[in-house]
Design goal:
Distance between the termini: 40 Å
CATH architecture of one domain: 3-Layer(bba) Sandwich
Mean pLDDT: 96
Helix content: 25-40%
CATH superfamily of one domain: FAD/NAD(P)-binding domain
Number of helices: 12
Oligomer: single chain
């Protein structure tokens, strides 16, 4: 039976925050776009994060280089970073490149490369706030880093002072000042905090992504369920079966997050994509006063506590493991134990912890741009900890490249060719 042929200008593979944003930006530039995913928009990595639009993260998350931190992580008893020994062996080349890129001079260069995206991240989300109706989900007021000891707080203040050239707004809080902002914190739990005031946060990142997708559809975009693995090239067009139809387009975008390499490998690419897995769980608060008023980061244990529509969400730090390996409850359980010493968490709300995999490249920059060996194929993945933050601004940058507009920043640092 011959499939009915349908035509679009672009097929976007993946309806997470990056794919949805790319579809919207291309649509705004007059392109007809088919957006596809195997599930609901925003139901994977875009759903499971802490909901930060992280304007203050002007320095990439580097590999630690001080011996004390490395020794703590090597023990595999750190709550912030956990690893599977077998996975660590297989990830050794990736980890070595990550460590190399984290040297101060290289880290500074990489940070300056991605800074134009960080600087625009909030504005690009706000571009759609009114039209998508996401205003009630967004919160001003930034987020707070918590420190257990006066020494760790002093070190953090010194580090923050070193970022003065970026013009970030922050307050140093002693224990009393912190308790005024966060009355739900238990006495004596922390010595003080840094309150980063620039970031915006959301109550439900998955819902924000779905609202953007709904806006795309309301404006005439096409959203369908399909298997991205079935994408094939036929002459000058990219083809994808969608139900009883075959969609064709001269251009296609791979925005599949941690699954991007599955398709890229089939096309002959070997991008060094690693995974920092994370878990989350929701908890009841005893009453409204016990809920955090700002997202709180327990810096030593590496987890976040933030108020979401479903309850208080605890998101863990990093687990170095294969993308699809079975879940390990240890990291979440230990983080919960620490969190209960910080504030009164009620019972767990979710039947099972959510688990996701942050797709990371060893130079801490995403791939954004054309595929080197395939005409009409574009790539947008590898955003690590900043997928939700950078989704809309990535969509803008990619759409500018695809439509020949002058880009708002240098795109060379994000080129896929750096790994070829």
């Amino acid at each position: 039976m011959t499939s009915l042929r349908r035509q679009a200008d672009v097929i976007v593979l993946g309806a997470g925050i990056v794919g949805v944003s790319a579809a919207l930006h291309l649509q705004e530039r007059g392109r007809s776009v088919l957006l596809v995913d195997r599930g609901e928009p925003g139901s994977e990595t875009s759903h499971g994060n802490a909901g930060l639009i992280e304007r203050a993260s002007v320095v990439p998350y580097a590999f630690p280089r001080d011996l004390a931190t490395l020794a703590a992580f090597a023990s595999n008893r750190s709550v912030a970073v956990r690893y599977r020994p077998a996975a660590l062996l297989s990830m050794a080349p990736w980890l070595a490149r990550y460590w190399w890129n984290s040297a101060p001079a290289r880290l500074d260069r990489l940070g300056r490369s991605i800074l134009p995206l960080i600087e625009r991240c909030i504005d690009e989300h706000r571009r759609w706030t009114e039209a998508a109706g996401t205003g009630p989900l967004m919160r001003e007021g930034g987020w707070i880093d918590l420190y257990r000891t006066p020494r760790s707080l002093r070190q953090a203040v010194e580090t923050a002072a070193g970022l003065s050239s970026y013009g970030l707004a922050y307050d140093v809080l002693d224990e009393d000042g912190l308790r005024r902002l966060e009355p739900g914190l238990l006495p004596g739990a922390v010595a003080g905090a840094l309150h980063w005031r620039d970031p915006v946060t959301v109550r439900d990142p998955g819902a924000v992504t779905r609202a953007y997708a709904a806006l795309f559809v309301a404006r005439g975009g096409m959203l369908q369920r399909a298997d991205a693995a079935e994408l094939r090239q036929d002459g000058a067009e990219w083809c994808l079966p969608v139900g009883a139809e075959e969609w064709r387009a001269p251009e296609a975008v791979v925005a599949l997050g941690p699954w991007s390499n599955d398709l890229c490998k089939r096309l002959g690419y070997r991008f060094p994509l690693g995974f920092k897995r994370g878990y989350h769980m929701h908890y009841e608060g005893e009453d409204d006063a016990t809920h955090p008023r700002h997202p709180l980061c327990e810096t030593q244990a590496g987890f976040m506590l933030t108020r979401m529509t479903r309850g208080i969400r605890l998101t863990t730090g990093v687990e170095l493991a294969g993308r699809d390996e079975p879940s390990d409850p240890w990291q979440l359980d230990q983080a919960e134990r620490v969190a209960r010493r910080i504030m009164k968490l009620g019972r767990r709300v979710d039947a099972e912890p959510w688990r996701g995999a942050r797709p990371c490249l060893p130079d801490m920059l995403p791939i954004i741009g054309p595929a080197p060996q395939h005409r009409g194929l574009w790539l947008a993945f590898g955003h690590a900890h900043h997928g939700f933050t950078l989704g809309p601004v990535t969509g803008r940058l990619l759409a500018e490249m695809m439509t020949g507009e002058p880009g708002f920043c240098d795109t060379a640092p994000f080129a896929a060719q750096r790994f070829i």
